[in-house]
Amino acid sequence: MARRLVIASQKGGVGKTTVALNLAVALAERGSRTLLVDLDPQGAVGLSLAKADTELPGLAELLMGQATPEEAVLVTRLAGLSLLPRGRLDATDVPSFEEEVSRPGVLAETLESAEAACDIVIMDTPSGLGRVTTAALTAAEFAVLAFQTESLALRSIGQGLRVLEHIQTAGNPRLQLLGILPTLVERERPGTHAVLSEMWNGFPDTLETVIPRTEAFAHASTLGVPVGFLGGGAGAPEARRFELLADELEARMNRLLGMEKVHEAQPARQLL
Ligand SMILES: Nc1ncnc2c1ncn2[C@@H]1O[C@H](COP(=O)(O)OP(=O)(O)O)[C@@H](O)[C@H]1O
Ligand SMILES: [Mg+2]
After folding, report:
1. Per-residue pLDDT, 111
2. Residue 211: which pLDDT band, with cuts at 50, 70 and 90?
């Protein structure tokens, strides 16, 4: 069965969709069959990828039984990466979409039909820990919580962790926090290092990999491509950042699932 990972945040505009997309690309490029699922009624993933996204069938149709998984899941030009867009959703349909997604068991069942050929499912969620995000977390094994690296965010980390605990006890005991991800990191800005140290010291689940704020991400989303697809090597260092993130997250998943590589107890060679 595919591992399901949710990218969530309390605030909007912290780079969640950017992380979901570029992480999915990094995972697919290293050989994991990856499905990126857009759970944001605003259709954020599709918006930054396909221009005619609102015309594509997707999760909404799958939920309503109006499309088959073959019709709803888009195979992308990158081998190993598929996309389940939000689907055609008028603003007036959003409440019924949210209602359907949060009906007990419905999202898990729908994902099962779409993820059959996948190793990992990345779910991008709307901002805030509302009902759609709660439904995603209830159907998943792993959560990554994204926080903009500024002092105000420190207060909301504890709050985010409590919401997660509540979902773990109330609905999904299998859910594990995979990591707290510092985003929009501005290394040059005074105070950034203090905030990062507080995150690392105060919250042991804070990831070592952080996502810097760089123009390349904004540029890539304007063009509707993952950052590594920018021409002339423009996005290369940023794409490398997501390879590191994929590395760290995969190692953590393996550790939490008890699948970490066992180191040989005996040395293979001698130095002296
Ligand atoms: N690391 C980054 N550096 C610079 N701009 C970014 C970065 N991440 C996201 N952005 C830009 O910020 C805006 C919000 O990002 P997005 O990923 O949509 O956030 P969210 O999904 O949390 O609302 C977009 O215009 C995006 O291009
Ligand atoms: Mg988003």
Report:
1. 97
2. very high
55 CA from centroid of ligand 2 (Å): 19
Distance, CA of 207 to CA of 245 (rounded, Å): 8
pLDDT tens column, 8-40: 999 999 999 999 999 999 999 999 999 999 999
The residue whose C-alpha atom lies closest to atom 2 belonging to ligand 1 is: 213
What fold, for 3-255?
Rossmann fold (3.40.50)
Quick one: which ligand is closest to 126's CA?
2
Distance, CA of 178 to CA of 8 (rounded, Å): 11
Ligand located closest to 219 CA: 1
CA R_g for the chain: 19
**239 pLDDT higher than 90:** no
Q: Which of 199, 226, 225 is nearest to 210 (CA)?
A: 199
Ligand 1 atom nearest the C-alpha of 221 is 27
Give residue 262 CA to ligand 2 midpoint distance, Å. 37
What is the Cα–Cα distance from 7 to 23, expressed in whole angstroms?
Answer: 10
Query: Tokens standing for 174?
Result: 């299998």
Name which of 42, 122, 46, 125 is nearest 89 in CA terms: 42
Whole-number Å distance, alpha carbon 13 to ligand 1 midpoint, is 6
Residue nearest to ligand 1 atom 23, measured at CA:
13
Sequence letter at residue 41: P
Place of tokens 């899941």: 73
87: left (phi over 0), alpha (psi -120 to 50) or beta: left
CB 51 within 8 A of CB 76: no
**Does the model's pTM come out above 0.85?**
yes
For residue 116, the tally of other CB atoms under 10 A from its CB is: 12
